[in-house]
Structures are given as structure tokens and as C-alpha cells.
Amino acid sequence: MTDQPPGSAGDFDALLKRFEPQVQRSVDPFEVAVMLEAEGIDDAEAERYGASDVFELARRLRDAAAPDVRGPAPPRKDWYPSAPIAVLRGLTFTMGALTIMTAVGLGAGSQAVVLVIVVNTMGVAVMQAVSFLSYVSLERSGKVRDPSAIRPLLLVLVLPLLVAVVGATLVDPLTGLFAGAALAYLTGMVMVLVLGRPVLVAVIVLPVAALAIVDSLEPDRINATWVVGAWLFGALLLVTASFVLTRPEGRRVVVRLGAVDLRAALPFAAAGLATGIVVIANLVTIASSPPLQAGGTRSWLIAALPFLIPVSLAELLVVGVRRLLHQATASTSSPEEFRRLGHRDCRRMWLVHVTVGAAVLALVVPLLEQGDLMTRVLLGLSFLLIGTLLTASLLLLSGDALRLEVGLLAVTAASLMAAWLTQTVLHSTHQLAVDVVILAIAAAVGVTLSTRVTGSFAHYR
Q: Which one has a higher pLDDT value, 393 or 338?
């Protein structure tokens, strides 16, 4: 201990000298923060060195470490490294929706369907955080990114998966079956994609998805036993692949994840939970519309296409924009010029999104068999707008604007539910129109905010 006052340069310099070799070898500030916490330096102690918390102290140590020894900082990486992985990540939403539709088609009651939706929503929230922690673990496992570094995270996921399945099974065996399938697909797809194996995921998932789509459109064409068997077999393959791919070869690499990492992962879980809640809120508000009430799973699948197809492509579009702007940082030094580039690339992305969504909407409206033309258009628009909102939220997530994303989704969900309750009490027949207006406002705000965040030059540097 020194006699210098808290926050003095002497204290910080002494700390830097003590940890400089480890800081120079670190991958990111999170790793430095974990190291500091392991040495007993918490948020309160960080104030002694002039930092507000241990993460800020870690970042300052990284900035102060000798650049000629540490070398240039690695470039900021895209969230997802390739187009196939981005598309398949987007398909996790589609698989969740198909799980619910298959359960309905096989005779699951409303209570069972609600449980499957809730389990799937919670799974999406957990997997957002686990995906983040998996990438962190792989980065810290060494130059050869050892897959066994994420095995502990996979093992942690098995317990809640089993608890959810057992709990749902007590309500109804079919519910437990599809709740387990939903979580298994979500877990397996995310973990195998983190390990960079999109072909394996595609080979397992796409045939099951195709079978589920055919079953939803033509319920009597395929025997129910084959449908259930395909879902379970695919889920088993994905979970097995996750464990096989993460098995240690020789001595297992152990990566420490500290409280700083867990705190950093919490916003991702919150973002995933908010995404699930806003989708559920939208489903609640539109469930009573004539095309969905009278048409069964076929109508649900057709009506949801303006949501499912653009959302499946959302990650591909977001990664494309981020990569282009990331490359532009090497040749652009003016924030104003970079902002123009960012806005231009975002406009192109939104043009593609709207074009795809509008094309799907034009195909969907004639296929819906119940309700008048205006009702069918509004129903398709509600799904399209929820897809636009989630695409904007993904762009906010990739821009580290997690609070903005969660706030936007939470306010939208609350507005949808408040409008639904009001319309129910008043026995109004304009619920679908009100839903579309709320989603249109939320989508416009999301597009504006996400475009502004994406064009921030400082964020990329």
C-alpha cells in the first residue's frame, strides 16, 4: 500500500507495472477485468485507481499497456463470420415457430401451446447470453480456438433444459415433448454454429423444417408418428453433435469467466427476453383475427411468412452492413463522411428488407382463406412490421446499444398489451388496425435509432 491519495497516478502506474505482462497478452478488457477480480480488485477497489468500476480500470490498463510490446489491437470482429452462419442463426426463430405450429397441429391444447411458447422465449433469452460467453471463451482459449473451452457452458444448459421438459411433461406429455424439442434445437443450433459448423446444422435442421412446413400446410398428408419422430431425431442429433464437437482432445482448456463476463452477458439475455416478449404480445393481440381463428396451422404459417422470411435473413443483412462499415474505417478518417457511408449502407439494407417483405406479403394475402381483404392485409402487415422491429433491434444489438434495444422492445410490448386490454374491455373491432399502428411507429423508431447507431464512427474505432 502507498500513502498517496485514492486515484493518484502513482497507484495506477504501480498497478500497471504489476500486471503489464498479463495485460499485454490479453484478448480484451473482459479478460483483464476477470484477472483483476481474481486478485481481489473489485469495483470499490477500482475507485482507488481513479476508475468507476473494475471494467473501466481494465480498459484503462489495456490502453496504457506498452503498444510496442502488446502490438496493435486486433480489429473488431463481426458478430457472425460467414453468410451461412448468419442465415442459420436467423432460422432459430423459424424453428421455434414451427415447433409451436407442429404442437398445435398434433392436438396440443392452448395451455400446452402457451407453455411451449414461454419455454422457447426463455430459451432464446438464455442462449443470447450463452452465445456471447461461448465466443468469449473461444477467444481466450488460445490461437487455435479450442472447442472444449465452451463445454462447461453446454453442460450448464442441460439442467434447465431437463427441468423445463419435466415441468411441461407434468402438464401434458405432448407439451414436454415439444418444449424439449424447442430447447434442444435452439441449444444445438447456437452451439454448433458458434463452433463454425453451418453445414452440419443445415443437414440436420433443413429436412426437419421442410417436413414441419409440409405438415402445417397439409396436416393429413404425413403420419403424425413420422413428424414427431423427425423432430426428436433432429433434436437428438444436434445435442449429440454439440457434445461430440466440444469433447477435449488431450488436456481440456479451462477458461475462467468472472463476474464481469456474467454482467456483460446479462444485457444479451435481457435483449433475448425482450424479443420473445414483444413477439408473444403481438401473437396475443392478433390471435382473435378471423383468418387465424378459422384457418388452423396452415393460416398461421402463411400469415407468419412476412415475419419468418425477413427475420431469417436479418442477421445476414446486419452482418453485411457491419462488415462493409468495418472495412471503411481503414480508409475513412472523417466522422461525417463515415456517417454518410453508414446511412447509405443502412438505407440499402432496409430497401432489401422492405422489398423481400413486401414481395412475401403480396403472395400471402391471396393465400389466406378467411376474412376480408383489409383484414388479411393488416394481418400480414403486423407480421411484417414485427420482423422489421426485430431486424432493427438486431442492428442495435450489434452496435452495443443494448439499452436502446431492450427499451424499444419493452415499450412496444407494453403498448401492444395495453391496447389489447383496452380494446377487449371496449369490445372494439379495430384491434388489428391498432396493432399495426403501434408496430409501425415502433418499427420507424427502431429503423431510425439503429441507422444512427450503425453510422457512429467512434464505435468502430
A: 393
